[in-house]
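Exercise 7b. Backbone tokens:
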């Protein structure tokens, strides 16, 4: 079982979730965590499960993620299980204003087979006053990410 977890992260929180998911998936075989700006088409070679995560920016998927996905060859995810998650500020209730549904649509367009509904992990605030890596995740979200990764693993093995 080979898993690739790809993320975009401005303040480090989506990256932390990606790394927590990787810890859960590790015992199943090979897992790599890659920042989206480092992603190459060859990273998908031989991969069974692709998990992609992004912050919600301006109620949607950030341009940086869309640009990379648009540059990938069609059908590159053919035969692979895919899942998408986002990080979003807690008070936004509407799923359609989050990044993960759009992200999952794009992974499906590239040939991926969705194995879970788009998932959201919540952060405390939209505009932290400082710059750099800032801990914004609500309590319990890292643990929830580990559980979600375990469910993905079960489903991709079915
Ligand atoms: C330019 C910008 C736009 C944002 N727009 C939204 C938004 O529309 N909805 C929302 O819930 N959060 C929004 N946020 C907050 C991000 O979702 C939050 O910073 C992100 O989840 C933190 O993840 P990261 O540490 O991986 O960057 C925005 C943040 C930035 C920097």
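Sequence design result:
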């Amino acid at each position: 079982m080979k898993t690739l977890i790809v993320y975009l992260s401005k303040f480090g929180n989506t990256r932390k979730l990606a790394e927590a998911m990787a810890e859960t998936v590790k015992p199943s075989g090979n897992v790599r965590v890659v920042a989206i700006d480092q992603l190459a088409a060859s990273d998908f070679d031989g991969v069974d499960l692709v998990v992609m995560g992004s912050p919600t920016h301006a109620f949607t998927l950030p341009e940086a993620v869309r640009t990379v996905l648009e540059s990938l060859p069609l059908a590159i995810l053919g035969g692979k299980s895919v899942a998408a998650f986002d990080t979003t500020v807690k008070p936004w209730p509407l799923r359609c204003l989050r990044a993960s549904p759009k992200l999952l649509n794009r992974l499906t367009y590239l040939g991926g087979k969705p194995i879970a509904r788009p998932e959201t992990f919540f952060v405390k605030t939209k505009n932290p006053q400082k710059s750099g890596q800032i801990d914004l995740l609500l309590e319990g979200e890292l643990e929830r990410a580990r559980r979600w990764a375990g469910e993905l693993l079960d489903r991709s093995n079915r």
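Instructor comment: The beta strands are 2-7, 30-35, 49-55, 81-89, 113-114, 119-123. The helical segments are 13-25, 63-71, 99-109, 141-157.
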